[in-house]
Amino acid sequence: MKVLKFGGTSVGSVENLQKVKSIVNNLSEPAIVVVSAVGGITDKLLNTARTATRGTEDYLSEYNEIVARHQTIIKQLLSGEKQTEILAKVELLHGELANLYKGVSLIKDLSAKTENTIVCYGERISSLFISEYLGAELFDSRDFIKTEVVGGKNVLNAELTKKLIKERFSEEKKLRLIPGFIATDAKSGEITNLGRGGSDYTAAILAANLNASALEIWTDVDGFMTADPRVISKAYTIEKLSYVEAMELSNFGAKVLYPPTIYPAYKKNIPIHIKNTQNPSHPGSCISNEPDESNKFIKGISSIADTCLITIQGMGLVGIEAANGRMFSILSRNGINVFFISQASSGSSISFGVHESNAERATSLLRKEFQKEIEMDEINSIVVEKDLATIAIVGEKMRQTTGTAGKLFNALGRNNINIIALAQGSSETNISFVVKAANLRKALNAIHESFFLSEYQELNLFVVGTGTVGGSLLNQFHAQKELLMKQNSLKVKVIGIAGSKKFIIDREGIDLSSFRNRLHEEGLASSPDAIKKALLDLNIFNCVFVDCTASADIAGLYKEMLQNNISVVAANKIAASSEYANYLELKNIARKRGVKFLFETNVGAGLPIINTINDLIYSGDRILKLEAVLSGTLNFIFNTISSEIPLSKTIEMAMEAGFAEPDPRIDLSGKDVIRKLVILARESGYVVEESDVEKNLFIPKDCFDGTLDDFWTKVQKLDADFEEKRKVLEASKMRWRFIAKMEEGKTSVGLSAVDEHHPFYDLEGSNNIILLTTERYKQYPMMIRGYGAGADVTAAGVFADIISIANIR
Fold this sequence. Notes:
The protein is α/β, with parallel strands linked by helices. Strands 3-6-2-1-9-11-12-10 form an 8-stranded mixed sheet, sandwiched between helices. A 7-stranded mixed sheet has the order 22-21-20-19-23-24-25, with helices on both faces.
């Protein structure tokens, strides 16, 4: 024999009730069906009662909605004589309910006894028409579910209930139906109930006392999830749980199952199946003592959003007799549930979590209980912290797995989430902790991913700059999205894109195939402050700030991003080449926060220059000297200049090819190369400022004064002189190269002539080259050579930096 319980959503519409009937008709063994009130009716019954206490007739409109809801379902569900008969019976119950509401309205008071009577009509009415629809024999749970008052609360009288169930169900029948939730007091016979969610409990009591083969809880979800799917889109159904795991998850906010339901089934070793009425073919979740063969040592993550932490502190607390007993006794007697406890080992402070709605009352009760101790200064303070959330990670295999807590702390710390209080039982099946409520979503996502509950790792990118490099990067991620998920189990989600005028941000991700249209149509006014506020307010986990601009204002955001545990990937050279103190501060913040500040593309576009230097240094080598051609623009110019193509024309061609800046004076001034050299010198371990670099420029200073038009006029006058010098070089079989040098910390940039035996001689097009002389590579310097300019290769380098962040997590 099975016991099946159908919740309010399952019986809340004709369509759903048809699915219930299909499920019941497919049973191959006798069954008892337990039903809740029609979805939303219990709340409506209570709200109408509270409206009635005003003493007006305002409650009538709500009452009429209850009546109409029941009548609509019955008329659609049943027909003919059955419909007439059930409508008449339900009308009598509605009449009783109307009289109760009228009485409440007249005396303007709602007693607990009257409230219990009113709220039971939900199940009484639903069970009446559902039993008729299913062809089941109806039993009244008030006859055999009995409660008694313990500590001011109605609790199950287990012995009497067991006796009455055995008597009432002595004969086995094909299908019986019972209203859940409702009970009566064992002594007075007055109507009571088993609490919100009590229909689950009713079903478990019946299953345990009748030795059912299984207990099925039919609801509107597929079962226990690894986390709240409304917060974590990657959450999935847990196929198997132990009774302990299910209890822990239920106590910490998982609303799939009413916690008291578990114990009766556990005691009789009856498996509990959580199933979805909307998706009956789904296997759902099974709670039992059967061993789980999966390698997941964390089964699920549960949370309570409305947490208030109350902390009692005082050096004299240790000497107060039965202090803890007094605390929890006074709270329990007043119906305040404590779901989290953390105590200092010294005993001088204790913190516990309650729902925010109970915070003021709990504090008042504790101050009254310990008034004497407070006056004697044995208790210094009772501190209340609000706007918090409690999170629990649950799994019985944790006790067999070392490093769980360390992994948890690492995942939270990496995302800038501070643990305010922590608790772990000796059973090691639950680690629970308190964080700020604002960090709840980020914490849940970080933990879910860290413990491999997700099929893939996720990075959330905010990309600033939609020009050649930024646009190419976004195109690359759009093209590689599926491959990254398939081969690397990595989901790269772009949650923000900013152009020069507008930006968009979306926690769920932006469709990269149409981001420009969305940016144009929905974009907010873009500014560094607006971008910073939007991203920090989003407070998303595993976040990477990607700068594909040349803006000093955007570079100025890096510090706050890193301080908020947001990694930074920059194609922008400004920050890494700024004052050394700023460069060092950014590096130190990233290291202390456990995030990354990466700027490989600052030098050599997609060439692995900075990473190679870092690898050499980390392995114990030392950079003694470096020589490099680092400007793709200048190398293109000096490779293109000829008797037919003068200097001014080569500059125009570099601009047309996309190598040079819109204002070519930036490249020709050598400033770009100076910045790159400063960055390489710093990454090599030397303290270098831009002002320390010796500059030997090939364009006279006066060419950089005035407007861009003035520049073009002046530079054309240099063509003849450059052609004469070029002829001399050609005759000597030499070529110009703009070379950056660093030797033992001394730096310089300038135009040099190299002969045909020099490694730089045959450097083609816009390529870059670098020679690294180190303690290990003294006689034969290490050479790195390749494309050093262009949007696609630079974007590819930024892409690689972003992927490397995923690889280190």
